[in-house]
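hey so i finally got around to running the thing on that chain from the lab meeting. sorry it took forever, my laptop kept dying and i had to restart like 3 times. anyway pasting the input first so we r on the same page abt which one it is
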Amino acid sequence: MAKHFKSGLGTRLGLLACSLLTTTQAAADSLEFNTLYRSPYFLGRGDTAVATADNHEAIFYNPAGLALGSGIYKETVLVSPSAQVSTQTKDLVRQAVVQKENSADQLKAFAGKNVHLGVNNFTGVVFRRFAIGVLASANTNIMLSKSPDANGLDTLHGDANVNRVATMSAAEGFFDNSLLIGTTLKYILRNEASIDVSAADANNIADKLDSNDVKKDRKGYGADLGFMLRPKSWPLSLGLHVENLGTTKLKAAENGVEGKRLPQIVTLGLAVEKSTKTSSLAFMADFRDALGSVETNGFKRTHLGAEVRFGRFIGLTGGLNQGYPTVGFFTNLYIVRMDLGLMTEEVGSSAGLRPDQRVMFRLMAGF
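ok and heres what got predicted. didnt touch it at all, straight out
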């Protein structure tokens, strides 16, 4: 867990894990930029999970879900590499990461389009009521647009963040498991970089982001808190997740660099589930950042999802993420699980302004 970005291909992926300014809103202030982990499985169903999160994904979406079920052991995740890539700009990702071609002329071909690359991997052991693990994640957006602050000239803005997180979670059920309460404690090492350059000076932006005068290294401790209400007589379950309880303070690793606080984000959720011996059907709804700590547009905070599962091995998901349709597929073959999906993230300041369609993939091995 070195404090520097340089680590071969991982460095390039991290540096291209930028969250960029749109014409009206900086991605560095967005919900996505301040989130450590996003599940391809949950994204396929509209990024809904607060009332149903289970297994290792409960660590980040609602730790109360660790108390679900019976027995002692849930799962061991050996590796779980996943990626999100913008569909319209995958050629630019290939040029910048593989071919390292970042000339101004090539970038102009992508003017007004958001380039996103998100990667993460979780490894850990999950018991009922307790889990430990480590997460590595990075998120990137790059956008070329005309800046009103630069007399309308083409300007490239980039933000990059790389996170390395150690987690420990615990949960317990009360009132015959009708009320579940859980918490996640986390130690975070975070690298960030931000830069604004004119299109003419945009060559080798990855190297510019890696320079010492723009990157910042921070670390700190934080906690999440989660609740689930699941009375056996009710046809639905309710969830509440407080991410970064009281805000998470990240102290700069070097003198002269300011600290940072990851904002407290409160998410409300509900779910209706119906199961038979051979299949299950679920409908979910989440309202993220309910207190408006980061996002003020109510439509962008709204998430709806549905899932149909056939036995324990295969399932289909769908939903609406910020009003845009999502679809997903997963198959679980005991020691290997695969998730595929398609979703759209709004990177503008309001719904419909600047949609970014993405492909998601995850391959997880464990038992």
